[in-house]
Amino acid sequence: MFPGALKVFFEVVQAGSIRKASDAMGVSPSSVSRQVAVFERQMGTKLIKRGPGGISLTHAGQLAAAYARSVVLEFDALKADLDDMRGSRRRLIRIATVESVVASGPCQAIADFRRQFDDVTFRLTMMPAPQVVEAVKKDLCEIGLAMNPRPDPTVRTLGIIPEPIVLAVPEGHRFRDRSSISLAEAISGEVVTPDDSFGIWRILDRALREAGLSIRPAMIANSFEALRDYARMSGCGAILPSRAASRAGEPTTLVPIPIESEPLMSGAVHVIANGERRMPRILTLFADVLVKSMPLST
After folding, report:
1. CA–CA separation, 94 and 110 (whole Å)
2. How confident is the model at residue 85 (pLDDT cuts 50, 70, 90)?
3. Where does the pLDDT of residue 248 fall: very low under 50, low under 70, confident under 90, or very high at 90 and above?
4. What angle do CA 262, 273, 11 make, to 5 degrees?
5. How far from the centroid of its chain's Cα atoms is residue 267's Cα?
6. Residue 196 contacts by C-beta under 8 Å, 6 or more apart in sequence?
7. Per-residue pLDDT at 296 exceeds 60
8. Where are the domains of the chain?
9. Buried (b) or exposed (e) across 267-283, using 16+ Cβ within 10 A?
10. Whole-model pTM?
11. What per-residue confidence (pLDDT) applies to 186?
């Protein structure tokens, strides 16, 4: 077992302040401060600087934080594996996901998984793709689903599910019966898009630059539901991930029309995890179920 002072130091670094760490651990701030001081004495140097906005790390503190993080996370993974061996799988799996797949994959995977492992519970949080990656890196979740995340050596890819970006059109749209369209055609009329907080915007921007095109959306939004609603009401097209083109229970269905553009056709959802920690067996099992529950969208 690692020293308690190391665990407290790790919690302070994760929380960013003594007070937030004490709240998270359910102990007094003075107790947290004493444990941090003990750890600094053990290391023989100052590790943190206190300020009005929280704590900052000295150079030595950064080295100690990296070590503490690896020790604590490896301990957690080991404990999960030993619990699994003893037949005790009770744990919480936190999933961060982009909006486009929240209803088409994770929920089915969770339902299927809990039929076999009913002691495992889940917390599902929806956020834009860049925030998913940060949540995975900061261990705010165990599993992330992100749209075409940038390569990162600290992030492990567990699976890739094709998710092409399409023009979703309502009834009566001029492209409704087309099997595919060019990017120039897709943006030639009134069109709406997600805003730049979504990973899809970075992919669309790349496609436009490569084609020498520009776009002036009638509306941008941080909600796929709002974009679908506007497309139905106005009769225009919405540039969306294919799984986000329609939602069960909505009054009319938008039809996804493939866009002939390599960056858009190469859209994909990546199932990711922290690459700096060992994956407990229970997480590996769930990741396999998750990938299999999300077949290629059509």
Report:
1. 11
2. low
3. low
4. 140
5. 16
6. 202
7. no
8. 4-84, 89-160+268-292, 165-265
9. bbbbbbbbebbbbbebb
10. 0.69
11. 96
Q: Which long-range contacts (CB under 8 A, 24 or more apart) does 202-206 make?
A: 202/148, 203/147, 203/148, 203/165, 203/263, 203/264, 203/267, 204/165, 204/239, 204/263, 204/264, 206/263
Q: Which amino acid is at 149?
A: P
Residue 92 has a pLDDT of 84
Amino acid identity for residue 187 in this structure:
I
Rg, the chain, Cα only? 23
Tokens 């520009």 correspond to 214
- Output the six-digit token pair for 68: 């503490």
Find the mean pLDDT for residues 262-279. Answer: 89
CATH number of this structure's domain 165-265 = 3.40.190.290
State whether CATH 3.40.190.10 applies to domain 89-160+268-292.
Answer: yes
Fold of 4-84: Arc Repressor Mutant, subunit A (1.10.10)
